[in-house]
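Recap from last week: sequence in, structure out.
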Amino acid sequence: MAFASAFLVGGLLITGCSRGGPEAPAAEKKAPESAEEDAGPQVSRDAKGNVIITISDEAQGNMGLLVKKPEVAQVSPEVKGFGRVLDPTTLVSLINEFATARAAYIASSNELARARTLSGQGNASERALQTAQATALRDELAMQSAHDKLALSWGRAIADQADLPGISQSLTALQLLLLRVDLPMGQPLTNQPAGARLLTLSGQSLDTELIGPAPNVDPQVQGRGYLLLLKSNPAQLAPGEAVTGYLKIPGEPLKGVVIPREAVVRTEGAGWVYVHTGGGEAFMRVKIPLEHPTEAGWLVTESVSPNDYVVVTAAQQLLSIEQKGQGGE
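Predicted structure tokens:
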């Protein structure tokens, strides 16, 4: 019995030690976690209220963060407007109507010339000649009416195009797109724009041909409208799709730096970039205007200089770190 009691007491002691053993290492494991938190990214604000993110070189490498000086560039002065891809149904119908009337007039005018020749030779009656003249005049008026209808609806710049049947076929196949861009109300242009380009909703910049002023005013926008022709459709735009238009106007070119699109983050209703502050591990969020898109990105004329180092990779991760540091605001 004494031996059994001693064995039981010893077993309890061993069991207690085995239960208490893992608890001490568990407490030791918390220390590295708190150390990592202390060494993690820090979010703060400077005296001007700018957001500053401080992140170690090691963490930057793990994120794949890269910085780069922006390239210097310039673009022609532009005026910004908003528009859409137009439905070509009505235009195609009017073009076909004009083409039909023109074909009828060509046939009747040839018949009139033949009747005059025969009448001069004494081989056609005066009545036949008068009938041919009346038919040719009727067809001419019908052709002129169809052309005027086309010009009033879509502008004389379109109505006077040389290859209207070819344009009609390309519009039907969506190989050629007609667009309208309206300027804001109260922003008239003193000179005719020299050209135009588009920015799609996906951010793609496309050069277009400026046809001329629109024949009417949009009742909702109440600004001056312009018609544009897109001769290829790499962005697969469809009728009704919204676009942003930039009309090129005479003047001194705009000079600035090009910010790559992947460097831009959007928050608080604006565009921002992270700029290296020169402190080694600190980056500041800087607001930039997104007014002049280019093929390589956005032309920025303020806030960022050619000597700044801009975060071009992992900018969105920095924004996530900032929002997390501020409680997800």
